[in-house]
Amino acid sequence: MNKFYLKQFGCPSNRSDGNKIANFLISNDWKMSELAExxxxxxxxxxxxxxxQNQTLNSLEEVHKLKKSGAKVWxxxxxxxxxxxxxxxxxxxxxxxxxxxxxxxxxxxxxxxINQYYPFSTFQYITKLPENAYYLRISTGCTEKCSYCSxxxxxxxxxxxxxxxxxxxxxxxxxxxINSISLVGEDIGCYGLDINETIFNLILKxxxxxxxxxxxxxxxxxxxxxxxxxxxxKIFSFPNIGRRLSIPIQSGxxxxxxRMGRNxxxxxxxxxxxxxxxxxxxxxxxxxxxxxxxTETDDDFKKTRSxxxxxxxxxxxxxxxxxxxxxxxxxxxxxxxxxxxxKRLKIISFDVINLFFRKKNISTKKELIDFIYKSDEKIPLxxxxxx
Length: 387
Prior knowledge:
Elements: E1 3-8, H1 12-27, E2 31-32, E3 40-45, H2 50-66, E4 72-77, H3 79-82, E5 94-95, E6 134-137, E7 139-140, H4 151-155, E8 159-160, H5 163-175, E9 180-184, H6 199-209, E10 214-217, H7 222-227, H8 229-235, E11 244-246, H9 254-260, H10 266-279, E12 284-291, H11 298-311, E13 315-320, H12 338-359, H13 365-374, E14 381-383
Parallel strand pairs: 1-2, 1-3, 3-4, 4-5, 6-9, 9-10, 11-12, 12-13, 13-14
Antiparallel strand pairs: 7-8
Helix pairs in contact: 11-12
């Protein structure tokens, strides 16, 4: 029996692809093993920003030292498509990205195709979200052309999975007693636009067919949240939809949003979020913000801080603009210095921490110490910089 080792980095969509590969191989008589015993080592890379890219590259070097003689290293995920020149070809035998998972078929000596293999006969390998949910990819790619985004180089245009295929996979998971599933993709807000389908129809069927399963929704572009506001109110009114709305707003400044190519204005976002929170106050709000985008002024930055204080988000991914990730077609004349980007990232991080402590009524040193040492709860903040 052939053996494989899987190491994963990055977003839920990338980890969903890793799950798919692992279960496909297991279903075709491969065995998951430790790194030193593996015949094939599969690394699912992340190419979002320099921090994540370096994690992958460091892992490649470590794997090369520890793998057995003759073992092959396959590098998947976004990095091979975003920046192939960063990869040391002497450390990698095969590369693939989210749109070319079919290369994994080469490891299987039969007619099975990973892109058509639904439902899997077994789900022996499952990685889960903090909510204890299984990652299930419903689409690849998106409809947008954000000026800073490198991920679209790897995922391409929107490609939605058919509802019946998604339901078939959920049916297998249901039989495995999985009671929590996160529907993931680069932007699930645009799900179905390429196949004459809608996210509402998908959620309606899943919610109706599987009332015992809680379904979480991953990132929804603000453009589609605004456009389909009433739809999302209906979706989050279903009893088995996870109580978190995640929309990556990125900036509180219309000037910066326009240069990012985000195709919405901040007033519309604020109006719709305020109304949504009024109708469904129990639903947590999560967002992404980026600081230090080229031409961002102190005033633009203050508008982003104001947005955070206005909504006191329950979770925030905060990133400094990364020159590597910036593949804009614009020739911005004024980039922000690394020192200012880091300073702004720290300020936003402290804002989030301060708001979190306020929400938890932590106001004294003793209460802070008690929280740090006695609570299992984490501060709801993620960044792409190690302070």
